[in-house]
């Protein structure tokens, strides 16, 4: 184990990752850890953070090992291929012998799930083998999560109030580790993830890495906003009378004259609450957010009012930086109007 920890530390120096990804590798089986350290090869070297890629690669290795164990457990057995229900299912959805054996080798309650729940996009196709194998794997995975006697009751559970968790998972499949991660999130963060997660593409086989990344960013954003909201709620009222009293000298003259307070300089980050709300709507990394905070007030305002991406995504960092640069260039291109000097008579 000590040798592995030292190897993992060297691996982390080469491919920087956060603590979640590091612990995820550390808690994997020895075979999975060895696969990650030996076979993880990203497309580009020298990136600042490989957390999402490493977790995605580790999940795939875990899933591969789990499926290999399942194939050993659910090896083709002597099954009654003359079952009327199974034969009727095969007649309606034609498949090859491998796919049919994958169904018949499953436990009885899993077979029932497959026969009752399999709904392909189109009826009347010549071959449903690939769809049947994929759907059977998902049913087996769901059966491992819930005891058999609780299977029927599981459909009516709602882990998150107001959100159909089952329908969400059917639309965006994810593995058990992602499921456990979502359940550990605070309720308000979990609800936000389930209601606002919009991946770049639909129909993928696994959204685990994207969901965990989106949940992490959502949690970090809420942790940033809460201290600001608390400080704003607890800040003392600063009225005109307070400013006026503070500017009165210790020894007031006989005829005190009111001096208006000096105009406050407007900084580029005075709109921090609007920027935080904008970041909640369009998630971005710290580099993009710092770039936006350092922009001028007019550039910030134009980004807040006019930024409208064509598609929904889990990370808008590059789009926001590009759009802010264009706004800044337009601002710099406008001719500055010099203030007219008063005439001297």
Summed up:
60% of the residues lie in helices and 0% in strands. The chain is mostly helical and 345 residues long.
Residue windows where pLDDT falls under 50 for at least 5 positions? 74-82, 146-162, 235-250, 260-270, 337-342
What is the overall number of helices?
A: 18
Largest sheet: none
Radius of gyration: 30 Å
Number of domains: 4
Strand content: under 5%
Span from first to last CA?
Answer: 89 Å
Described by the principal axes of the CA atoms, the overall outline is globular
- The averaged pLDDT comes out at 76
Structural class: mainly alpha
User: What is the element string, with H for helices and E for strands?
Assistant: HHHHHHHHHHHHHHHHHH
Helix content estimate: 55-70%
* Count of individual beta strands: 0
What does this structure look like?
- The chain is an all-alpha fold and 345 residues long.
- The chain has 18 helices and no strands.
- It has four domains: 2-71; 74-157; 159-231; 268-308 and 315-332.
- α6 runs parallel beside α8, α12 crosses α13 and α16 (286-293) runs parallel beside α18 (317-333).
- The protein is globular and about 80 Å long.
Main attributes of the structure:
mainly alpha, single chain, globular, 0% strand, 345 residues, 60% helix, 4 domains
Secondary structure layout plus pairing:
Layout: H1 2-14, H2 19-26, H3 30-39, H4 51-73, H5 84-92, H6 97-104, H7 108-117, H8 129-145, H9 151-154, H10 165-171, H11 176-184, H12 187-196, H13 208-234, H14 240-246, H15 272-281, H16 286-293, H17 297-306, H18 317-333
């Amino acid at each position: 184990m000590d040798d592995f920890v030292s190897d993992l530390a060297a691996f982390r120096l080469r491919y920087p990752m956060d603590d979640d990804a590091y612990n995820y590798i550390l808690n994997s089986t020895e075979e999975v850890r060895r696969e990650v350290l030996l076979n993880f090869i990203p497309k580009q070297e020298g990136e600042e953070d490989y957390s999402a890629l490493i977790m995605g690669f580790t999940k795939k290795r875990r899933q591969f090992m789990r499926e290999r164990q399942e194939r050993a457990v659910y090896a083709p057995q002597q099954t009654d291929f003359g079952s009327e229900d199974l034969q009727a299912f095969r007649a309606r959805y034609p498949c090859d012998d491998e796919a049919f054996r994958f169904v018949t080798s499953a436990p009885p309650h899993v077979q029932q799930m497959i026969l009752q729940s399999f709904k392909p996009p189109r009826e009347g196709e010549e071959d449903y083998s690939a769809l049947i194998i994929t759907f059977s794997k998902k049913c087996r995975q769901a059966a491992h999560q819930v005891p058999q006697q609780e299977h029927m009751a599981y459909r009516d559970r709602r882990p998150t109030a107001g959100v159909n968790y089952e329908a969400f998972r059917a639309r965006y499949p994810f593995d058990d580790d992602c499921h456990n991660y979502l359940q550990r999130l605070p309720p308000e963060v979990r609800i936000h993830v389930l209601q606002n997660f919009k991946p770049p593409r639909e129909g993928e086989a696994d959204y685990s890495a994207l969901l965990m990344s989106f949940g992490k960013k959502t949690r970090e954003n809420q942790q940033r906003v809460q201290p600001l909201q608390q400080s704003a709620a607890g800040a003392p009222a600063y009225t005109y009378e307070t400013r006026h009293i503070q500017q009165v000298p210790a020894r007031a003259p006989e005829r005190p004259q009111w001096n208006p307070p000096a105009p406050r300089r407007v900084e580029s980050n005075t709109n921090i609450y609007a920027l935080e709300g904008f970041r909640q709507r369009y998630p971005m990394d710290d580099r993009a957010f710092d770039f936006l905070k350092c922009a001028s007030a007019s550039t910030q305002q134009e980004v807040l009012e006019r930024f409208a991406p064509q598609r929904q995504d889990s990370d808008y960092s590059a789009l926001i930086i590009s759009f802010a640069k264009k706004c800044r260039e337009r601002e710099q291109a406008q001719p500055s109007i010099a203030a007219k000097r008063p005439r001297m008579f």
